[in-house]
Records
---
Amino acid sequence: MADHYAQMSAPELYLGPFQGITDVHFRNAFMAYFGGIDKLFTPFFTGIDTDNSKSLRTPEIDPGKNDVARTIPQILSRDAAELIRFAEQCQQKGYEEINWNLGCPFKRVANKKRGSGLLPFPVLIEEILEAYFAAAPARLSIKCRLGYADPNEIHQLIPVFNRFPLSELIVHARTGKQLYKGQVCRPCFEAIIPEVRHRLVYNGDIFTSRGFLSDREQFVGINHFMLGRGLLSDPFLAADLKGINNREMQDRKRHLHAFLIDLFDARRETLKTGPVTMGKVKELWTYLIWSFDKPQAVWRRIREIKTEQEYKQALTSIFAEFDWTGQGYAKYLLSKTEASTNDVN
Ligand SMILES: Cc1cc2nc3c(=O)[nH]c(=O)nc-3n(C[C@H](O)[C@H](O)[C@H](O)COP(=O)(O)O)c2cc1C
């Protein structure tokens, strides 16, 4: 095993997109405070109906506010013309690659053959890719699941993906129907490694250093990993997985506290303090709490806050009274499987 690790190069880590959480403010504050991430993805855009789409005239994709070289704009669509329009506008802003979301699991999306709902239709996917690559205004990568209803659907999709010059394929090792529940199917991911011609990126349930080592060992030849809830729950995770030992980060509570204040202030500037900012604050905290020693008690401090002042007071008291244990999201999944009562998520 020692030999195997010696042969592995440093992993490339991606920050997964989270609609409603990993907005431009989060991405920028995260990179300023934590790092360890090589590539970032915007949450998905939709409704790109014109050549000067309103949703692309926002800070979310503004090249002056984003790290264009490392940020990949994502689109949710089943329409080749819309993908092309999106790619063209992104390219005009300086982005060289876009990502196509074939993973969104929600019924109202999937029922319209969008996101993971398109996965059972390889012919349709092939037609869309055909049309996209005939124009190919920017590089294209895909983020998908193993299937919508069945994890074997991917075996019909890979020959299609292999026919086109995708820049990479990111696979969240669940089905759409699973939503975010249950186990990821690691053996299913392992089985597709030899089939995929493109760079293959693993995504799903990377929550701890130990789990990551085991994934690296199992997925021979895979060097690219997308982090999701594990990183929201412990923003130090990527740096830890890479062994980055930054002295500033050693006082973790102080560092995280400063990040959260900066993130709040950055959002307040564009969103004003109000339900939107508070909603985002609380949603991030549904992940963060699990990396404290007493998740439920921390949540009770956050749950009722309504104003900026209440939030900043809650932060002060949380960081004074609770311990940061880190890498805690596995605790959440454990609490679910044990069916213990909990009042978040
Ligand atoms: C609230 C929420 C919002 C998400 N938004 C997006 C999105 O906009 N685009 C996308 O590709 N994936 C989205 N995802 C999926 C994550 O990026 C990631 O693939 C998923 O959480 C699995 O990785 P993990 O097990 O490491 O969390 C979202 C997930 C959640 C829970």
---
Amino acid sequence: MIPTEKIIRAAQSYRKELIGFLREIIAIPSPSGEEERIAKRIAREMKRVGFDEVFTDKLGSVVGKIGKGRIKILYDAHVDTVDIGDRNKWSFDPYKGKYEKGFIYGRGACDDKGCVASILYGGRLIKELGLEGDYTLYFTASVREEIHEGLALSQIIEKRKIRPDYVLIGEPSNLNIGYGHKGRIELKITTKGKSCHAATPERGKNAIYGMAPIISRIERLNKKLKAKEPLGKGMIAVTKIETENTSLNTVPDDCAIYLDRRTTLGETKGRVIKELKSLLGGSRAKVEVLKHENGDERYYPAWILKEDHPLILAGIETYKTLFGKKPKIKTWPFCTNGSYTMGMKGIPTMGFGPGDPKYAHSIDEKIEADDLAPAVSFYALFPSILEISKKVRNL
Ligand SMILES: [Zn+2]
């Protein structure tokens, strides 16, 4: 028997402490790459609330572990945030953790520290009520998600050899179940020409003129991209144009454009590159996928998990058990670490989190305090429901 009432009550009883902890970690600035301080605070809290094991990996992500059963479940939420942008545009200090009229404010409140705090307290609840079962639960409070989706989890999965059977991504979803999102690729196209004095342009070949028709074709391509439900239509945009040319009276011999390509299902990296090459019109322009410093390509695949997948069904069941109604199943408007776990590794992945995604990355970011306890109870109960449903289905 699942002690549903007890779980709901325990989650509610954490309210004050949980809000306090969330405000505290909002007050520790953690832009991508500078997560050391917040990671230490999170590791300390994981130990305090009773996680069986806690360690920090080489990259700086904190990993907590509960139980040692057969089903391996990984919960992930990232501790880094985007920059605050123009400080003057905020109506309060983004690094204070202001709490007023039922909302907690600050950079990272919604994306993604509310999820970090709720998952952590979900772990606490599992330990306090003894909800452990035939599962091992890992919680990765991961770093650098905002600049390199998947990097932290690839370290955990490849280097630390923690191979989850299922992944739950904690990102703001208004407490709905997330089952996928579009992918993205960052690309560059370069044209070459021949430089000469701008007073006699006929002697050279202007690389910018070589690029112009390609840009027009890309603009037209964006209108032609086909939708694939439930993710909808892909998108392509030229986001920057540059030349190495340093002189304003020389015809440039090079030109580069940068592209942000959002992909729907079926729009793989190979297909995207092929499609762009077909726009080059016989010119010798070069198309390339941009890379991170460590050599990883800036490619994050689109993904979707079937609505009737056992993981999603367990999510629905958990929701119904706790809240007495059916959840909404939604796609996310942004990219997450799920691009790596599901898009690249094929590990069944689902999402769930407190907070409204529309406040992610926004000025005056906030999260509703009433979202937190339901999230805690969901994170605590979900592994048990998944375990039971696996037994029932004989998986
Ligand atoms: Zn996020």
---
Amino acid sequence: MDEATRLQYLQAMGIDVWVPRHQADSEPMATETSPTDSHHAWTDLQHQVSQCHACELCKTRTQTVFGVGNHHATWLLIGEAPGQNEDLQGEPFVGKAGQLLNEMLRAIGLDREQVYIANMLKCRPPNNRDPQADEVAACNGFLQQQIALLQPKIILAVGRIAAQNLLKTQQPLSRLRGTQHQLDGIPLVVVHHPAYLLRSLTEKAKAWEDLQFAWSIYQTV
Ligand code: SF4
């Protein structure tokens, strides 16, 4: 991505940035070839999720929201749970928040198709309430299998709820961002949720800082 294009994306995010810190136009894809049965493993897992009734959310979902993206991606983004649009469309991070997430990714030279995006929960909590501990526990096995299949080089925990659950902490997002965490030996960086950024435009600059930080971590792994 050339500099002018990147600045366009940043402007679309509402961020006044004069100089991005790095060149991101050579984002590498994973070089290892997946096992020949990798495709079947993903398909099987997605089928398991679609049939899951392990928690109460199965009763109110329109459909499960498994995850989307490149099975060879080196970046894994993990959000909290499907919202209304996601529940209807069956894909995580769609609608305005999804568009902003795409712009955030492009700002660091990543297309949505180059990453993998999933949620902790595969079914929408009614009225977008916070996930309950038993629901997170019930669904965690699916996320763990996604991580095992993908073997990402870096994980972005998108938003406070995802970050607190993944890191098993109650610390506020302000204390979790800007630090390199680990999830099962994989570097994890916490970023603001785009839905939050849509409500709080002044926070977009922090989101850009988070992404730059994540990129700097990625360069070292
Ligand atoms: S949220 Fe997860 S554990 Fe609960 S029913 Fe949906 S897929 Fe199953």
